[in-house]
Write a structure and sequence with these properties.
By secondary structure, the protein is mostly helical. It has one domain. About 65% of the residues lie in helices and about 5% in strands. It is built from nine helices and six strands, in the order H-H-E-E-H-H-E-E-H-H-H-H-H-E-E. The strands form three sheets. It has a two-stranded antiparallel sheet with strand order 1-2. Strands 3-4 form a two-stranded antiparallel ribbon. A two-stranded antiparallel ribbon has the order 5-6. The protein is globular.
Length: about 280
């Protein structure tokens, strides 16, 4: 691309940005029906803006987002299974846990796709008649708890299959694991959602900054949270399902280890022993 072409491209993008900015200024400031406190509260609790689920019941917007993301992933999986996987060539490889691999891949894809889903800003009408953008599924506490508990049950199943009752005991010792996984996922995605809501609420912050904040926060959270939860699941699954017996150290090795820990004698002092009536050094 020549210098003249680059200059022409920059002018075109600048003109497009100017048109969008002028259009936003001409539209004017929209009257906000909610205060920033109400917006933040609803982003956490989802108790105000409900969405009708096919007229059956009123649900949180995060549930609608979870259904849409799940349907998209299922359709994508069917397309890959029908059109692409039959063309793959079978290559011998090491033994891999097929169930764990499938679950980790599905979990990572769900968290990553669900987090990026909020970038599209897909809007639905609430029961109150106001539009709302669908959030990431796991920014709802119910979705995050579901992912944490489901991963914990997968870990428990690995312990049962690998070690039986011993595996159950090893898994139950990590009783705080589903809580930590759930709230880590929920807290990370919720923080990004709150920052984005704050930026979009104020008109002075709604130019250029949302692009940086929204995209960077969403991309970072999508990659990091998908990696963290899948790696934790794989790590604890391998830990509780490992049936390799632990070898005990030989007696002489334990004795040498005990003597190595014994503090050395102080220099300059000789130990004396008494044999009968004679003292020897």
């Amino acid at each position: 691309m020549t210098k003249q072409q680059r200059k022409r491209t920059a002018l075109i993008f600048g003109a497009i940005a100017m048109v969008f900015m002028i259009s936003a200024l001409l539209v004017g400031r929209l009257e906000k029906k909610e205060t920033i406190q109400e917006v933040m509260r609803d982003a956490v609790l989802h108790d105000m803006n409900k969405v009708s689920f096919f007229g059956i019941m009123d649900v949180n917007p995060g549930f609608i987002a979870a259904v849409i993301v799940s349907c998209l992933l299922i359709v994508f999986a069917l397309i890959c299974r029908i059109f692409f996987i039959p063309k793959f060539t079978m290559v011998p490889s090491k033994k891999i846990n097929s169930f764990l691999g499938a679950y980790i891949f599905a979990t990572g894809a769900y968290i990553f796709t669900g987090t990026l889903f909020e970038l599209f800003g897909l809007q639905v009408m609430t029961t109150g008649g106001t539009p709302i953008s669908l959030p990431a599924p796991c920014s709802d506490i119910n979705g995050a708890i579901m992912m944490g508990c489901l991963s914990y049950l997968v870990i428990l199943s690995g312990g049962i299959i690998g070690n039986g009752f011993k595996g159950i005991g090893e898994t139950l010792k990590e009783f705080s694991l589903p809580i930590s996984m759930s709230f880590r996922l929920f807290g990370a995605l919720l923080s990004g959602a709150l920052v984005t809501e704050l930026v979009y609420y104020y008109e002075a912050l709604s130019y250029v900054l949302p692009v940086l904040v929204g995209v960077l926060f969403t991309l970072l959270h999508a990659v990091i949270q998908a990696y963290v939860l899948t790696m934790l699941t794989a790590l604890f699954y391998g830990k509780v399902s490992d049936d390799t017996p632990k070898e005990k150290a030989p007696k002489e090795n334990r004795e040498n280890h005990r003597l190595a820990k014994k503090p050395p004698a102080r220099p300059g002092r000789k130990r004396t022993t008494v044999v009968g009536r004679h003292r020897t050094a």
